[in-house]
Write a structure and sequence with these properties.
Subunit structure: Homodimer.
Family: Belongs to the diaminopimelate epimerase family.
Oligomer: single chain
CATH architecture of the largest domain: Roll
Strand content: 35-45%
Bound molecules: ligand LBFN2T5F
Keywords: Amino-acid biosynthesis, Cytoplasm, Isomerase, Lysine biosynthesis
CATH class of the largest domain: Alpha Beta
Number of strands: 18
Order of helices and strands: EEHEEEHEEEEEEHEEEHEEEE
Protein name: Diaminopimelate epimerase
Largest sheet: 18 strands, mixed
Number of domains: 2
Number of helices: 4
Radius of gyration: 18 Å
CATH superfamily of the largest domain: Diaminopimelate Epimerase, Chain A, domain 1
Shape: globular
GO cellular component, one term: cytosol
Structural class: alpha+beta
CATH topology of the largest domain: Diaminopimelate Epimerase, Chain A, domain 1
Distance between the termini: 5 Å
């Protein structure tokens, strides 16, 4: 099977995006791991499949797979790249696009300046919704790992996130601690682990160890989760600039019960074909 794909990136979080409307595509986890492999395949953090919508009021459905082959429900940078893809490929001429995802419907707006704004949905805090095996909701949770106390916020942006506040973002133990927490039994579906340094009330620095992909240059849902956690802790205003290794996102959240809005770039890098 020969598949046509587009290589894309949002702040260096990179994607292989495949039109599964105009080509017949069925991929198993082994094939996804092969495509995502940076030495033997194309290389990407996530693979996105663009499909026909399942609900009447949606324009498309898109599915998200991590580099390890696992299918997941939410991807912030992926949502912006998906919007850029359907516009660039002339699959739609709408500037406001409704898309079905496994985390519910998202609305994406293509702005005049080329950036994309995504309504990322309402964050969930109840442990069962994250999911997190804790008896009740708390502002911060504590766990002991190899004798060290680790304190984190936890919430769902349609996918699970733990956010740890750090003093020094450069030396934060992203790989070591991120890997351990990602697969900790407290998180039955694993977790994305963000390390956040609060710079001032409107800006943070963030590095994310992503579930199924290790540390990436940016994580859009992680940026939303970090901003929400900081706002919940009373440390941040309602509009936050999140600086990731690959660039910055603007995150806006009016508080509990409201959607989170994420604005940032999405770029097509090249197109190609791969034989599976
Ligand atoms: N890079 C993404 C998140 C991709 C999914 C995540 N690794 C998960 O398993 O939930 C983003 O930009 O949000």
């Amino acid at each position: 099977m020969r598949i046509h794909f587009t290589k894309m990136q949002g702040l260096g979080n990179d994607f292989v995006v495949i039109d599964a409307i105009n080509q017949s595509v069925r991929l198993d986890a082994r094939q996804i791991r092969f495509i995502a492999d940076r030495h033997f395949g194309v290389g990407c953090d996530q693979l996105l499949l663009v499909e026909s919508p399942v609900s009447e009021n949606a324009d498309f459905k898109y599915r998200i797979f991590n580099a390890d082959g696992s299918e997941v429900a939410q991807c912030g940078n992926g949502a912006r790249c998906f919007a850029r893809f359907v516009l660039d490929q002339s699959l739609t001429s709408k500037r406001s696009i409704v898309v079905d995802t496994d985390a519910g419907q998202l609305v994406l707006n293509a702005n005049e300046d080329g950036d994309i704004t995504v309504n990322m949905g309402v964050p969930r805090f109840e442990p069962k919704q994250i999911p997190l095996l804790m008896p009740e909701e708390a502002l911060v949770y504590t766990v002991f790992l190899n004798g060290d106390q680790v304190t984190f916020s936890a919430l769902s942006m349609g996918n699970p996130h733990a956010i740890i506040c750090v003093e020094d973002i450069e030396t934060a133990p992203v790989s070591a601690l991120g890997k351990v927490l990602e697969s900790h039994p407290l998180f039955p579906e694993r977790v994305n682990v963000g390390f956040m340094k609060i710079m001032d009330r409107q800006s943070v620095k963030l590095r994310v160890y992503e579930r199924g992909a290790a540390e990436t240059l940016a994580c859009g849902s992680g940026a939303c989760a970090a901003a929400v956690a900081g706002i919940e802790r009373g440390a941040l205003e309602r509009v936050v600039s999140v600086q990731l290794p690959g660039g910055s996102l603007k995150i806006a959240w009016q508080g509990r019960g409201h959607s989170v809005y994420m604005t940032g770039p999405a770029v097509s890098v090249y197109e190609g074909q791969i034989e599976l």
